[in-house]
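Pinned message: reference record for Rhamnogalacturonase A/B/Epimerase-like pectate lyase domain-containing protein
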Amino acid sequence: MKLNLFILALFLLSSCKKDDVVIGTQLNNGIGVTSPVRSLATTVTPANAVNVKDQGAKGDGVTDDTKAITNALAYAKAHGVANIYFPDGSYMIGQIGNGGGIIKLADGVGMMGNGPATCHIKLTGGRKNPNSIFYQDYVGMPSIGNLVIQGIDFNGNLPLQTYDADYQFCHALSINNGKNIEVKNCKFQSFRGDGLLFGDCFETTLNQHIVTNVNVHDSEFFNIYREGIMFCAVNGASFYNNNVHGDGYLVGGVDIERHSVNETVLNVAVYNNTFNFADGYGPVERGGPKVRYRRAVTMGFFYNGYKNATADSLSGHHKIYNNKIYQGQIDCWGIINVSISGNCFTNTYENITGVNFLTTSAINIADPATTKGLINISADNNIINSAMGNGIVFHGYTRVQANANTITGTRTDGINLINTSGYFYGNTITDAGTTTQKASGFIVSGDSSGLIITTNQAANTTAGTYRTMDYVVKIAGVNNGMVAPKIQNNKGKNMTAGIISLYWLQSTFADLLNNLAG
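Predicted structure (tokens):
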């Protein structure tokens, strides 16, 4: 019996010592010793990834982790590993870099964190005209591709930097030439430049640099000075399910921009995004009063423009659809083959007199020069509730259309057509204009050969002196087109002056049929 009790005591003592070790490890973890069990839960490196902490990164918000991140990228590239992994933490970028940027990206090597709420990469403060964080060194690595960037918050720390007035080149990531790039579940904030830049500008030879197959989605862009994202020298890109807001956006939330005749900018889709400029202001460098209203999406060919001022096939085929836009517009300057559909605008009035890079129309489709061959723009099924200016403007385009749009409360005419020909069907326009400056559903000026305006409706929802709309369709100037416009089957309710108004010098130059009141 005594022997049995002795054995039992040894067993219990052994069990207690084992428990003490476990308890002691857990307690030690509370004072800074990592528990092996918890370590597996929080710092395990995903498959096919290099942990930046294994290359010396601290992620403590204090230590300069630039070299460790650079080493991790180089190690992953050398060993054929697809990603570098950032465990939760704040990784400070303390080095200065060069004009291209600070950390060189590696072909085929992505970057991943657990999410932008817990994984941060941040520039240290106190810089003058800081360089971009990540960039492609296209001399040493002429192509970057086949990579995914996900789950990271990129922060340029803008309030703690200083800048020359014209400086705008601090980006989170800059990729000039490559293919197959995906960015998802990231945050880009506080950059004196772009959140993301794809492509290159002012090429000396055709498509010297170009990026193909880019996808950016489910990310946030906040307080970005120039553009949330810029696509230039790009063929094939999508931007969707993103949230763009805050201060800044000198050019726009999304900029699809061609700079020279040697660039290709084709096939960009922007859809299912929210652009909420009601929660911030444009930069003072835009001039004029400080306003919230900005360009959500802008497409353009500026600078010298097309060769011989004739549109070519190297820019266009963009699709902008199903976006929600607050205090913003969609802008298309000199680009062809574009579809703008299903977008929803909510804009209250702001005085933008003297503010650069803006027009008052919710959708502005225009030619900044006198380019020939501007064709094939459609603006369909958009819902525009905007007190800024026109709902839709076409200027200098042919073979265009605007169908089934709902336009409410514009300060000026609902749809403004200047030197434009096309087909306009099934639009509903209410309460355009003001009590002191009446407006029409459509206003037409300039040459518009073969213009068709049919089966549209316009209405005042107010009565008496509070009515703001005078006509459904108003021809406001001489039309030298070869074919008279067809204005048929349109209806107006509660107009102050009538249904159709023709220009007094051409009172018979229109094919009118079945335009009715009521």
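Pinned by admin. Summary line: Residues 107 and 144 are 4 Å apart (CA to CA).
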